[in-house]
Amino acid sequence: MDNTEIKSSVWIDGNKETVWKAVTDEDKLSQWYAPGSPWDIPNLKVGEKIIFTLMPSAHNNLKEKLPMFLTIEKVSTYEEFSFYADTQQILISILLEEVANGTKVTMNMGGFDASLENLKALVEGKEITYK
User: Tens digits of per-residue pLDDT, 92-128?
Assistant: First the structure.
């Protein structure tokens, strides 16, 4: 039996400080993670609440906006930002690691490739592909 976890990751030509800001700043998150869907992160501290509002787009079947309530699980500056989706009790973790003169970003589950490509484009100053 294969216990390998499916993860999504991308290498970004940027330092950990710049990438960290892009994964923890609500305005930057709204640009790369489901572009146009706003994040509200009043306090970047463990136990604090986040509201992410998924907006209808070509990539989902939503007819109206869907607010999601999240709780911050871990904030390890320049290393890890993780939070729970309160209703599903799913942990989403974003890990940063310096690799080959850049930063490798890994999410703890699969299915985030398009979002991570958007993050890469944002940090590298390129056009965001997946809108």
Answer: 999 999 998 999 999 999 999 999 999 999 999 999 9
Residue 62: how many other CB atoms lie within 10 Å? 12
The low-confidence residues of the chain, meaning pLDDT below 70, are 1-4
- Contact (CB, 8 A) for 69 and 39: no
Let me know the angle formed at the C-alpha of 39 by 117 and 32, rounded to the nearest 5 degrees.
15
User: What is the pTM for the complete model shown?
Assistant: 0.92
What is the rounded distance in angstroms from the CA atom of residue 104 to the CA atom of residue 13? 9
Contact 46, 55 (CB under 8 A): no
Token pair recorded at residue 109: 């589950």
Question: Closest Cα partner for 36 from 60, 51, 61, 57?
Answer: 57
Q: How open is the CA angle 27-127-110, to the nearest 5 degrees?
A: 70
- Beta strands (DSSP E) in 1-131 are 8-12, 39-40, 49-54, 66-76, 80-85, 90-99, 102-107
Sign of the torsion angle spanned by Cα atoms 100, 106, 110, 112: negative
Place of tokens 């787009």: 57
Q: For tokens 């993050």, name the residue.
A: 119
